[in-house]
Amino acid sequence: MVTLEQAMNRRFTYSMLIAAMIAALTSGTVLADSIRNSAGINYAGRVRGLSPEGVVIDVSGSARTFAYAEIAKLAVDEAPDLGKAEDLLNSGEAAEAAKLYAKVRDKGGSAWLKHFVDARLVRSYDESKQFYRAVKAMISLCAMQSPLASQVGQPSPLAKGSADNQSSLKEIEQALATVPAGAFADRLKSLRINILMVEGNPAEILGLVEEQLKSPDVSVRKQARIKHFQILLDLNRVDDAGRSLEQAGDDLDNSERQPLMYYIEGRRLYAKAEAARKAAEGKPDQPADERDYLRAALKFMRLPVLYSLAQKDLAAESLVWAARAMQKAGAPAQEVGTVLDEAVRKFPNTRGSDMAHKMMEDMGGGS
User: Fold this and answer.
1) What is the pTM assigned to this prediction?
2) CA 287 to CA 272: how far, in whole Å?
3) Per residue in 282-316, pLDDT tens?
4) At CA 189, angle to CA 164 and CA 315, rounded to 5?
5) Which residues of 208-243 are buried (b: 16+ CB within 10 A; e: fewer)?
């Protein structure tokens, strides 16, 4: 027979067990979300949403904000597949990650989660060469006026003539009719220019880029300044490109300005050597000084050596121009080919690698 005291003890024990279980479950709920930053440090807590600076998470009662670029992995209890998608993306399986991100998005959830997942879709689709889908995700971010729209990188257009490029241009044009004028529309205009730089005539794009130089969004102005510089060089307006760089002001910091300076100095030396060669035509007793070609090659070479990670597109093109200068200076074809091969291997899927492929084909060594 159970005494009253035993019954009370049992009830107390059951109550304690239930309380402990509830406390454990509650604790697990509160601390189920986590952010691992780019340094590998994990912060457990509860994601509260977005601020203009990034994702806000409560950690031990204190709010911490992580910029999108700082977040290596985000896991939340309301979307278990998100953490799995993050692991896939970090392991280089972008296509599979994109499928899981899309699954998370389709299930719905907190408003902030939709923003974050769209940002990850831009990246995962871009890395898996699904440009049209990446553009659609970027349009979604801009349509929501998400603070992450300015923090996620722009997707890269595919090769000239790609159906994805053409379809993306149509989607962007339709979106610009509904997205309010301002920073978010400017992001889409910047993306449109990226596509047109692959597909169109540089002279026709110049006006669109100059309009972007007036954007209130410093990240848009920065990209516009670099494109302005590049288009002027494509049009062989080297001095105008130099002036554009001088007018950049605070839009470009020194780490961004310096590689452009190396590039334009190389182009100026190359142009000087070309002018000297042309002036010497028909004058066998006054041969052109080829040393400016070599000086140009050395200047171009500095960019990929010092800025290969930060300026991949420009670094690839610098190698092509270095190869051109070496060829004009009479370097052996094998040495020229080595430089071009470096552009292809080290900087794949860039305009410079395409230029290098074309030059190798012209030399008879294309793959």
Assistant:
1) 0.71
2) 14
3) 787 777 778 889 999 999 999 888 887 667 888 99
4) 75
5) bbeebbebebebbbbbbbbbbbbbbbeeeeeeebbe
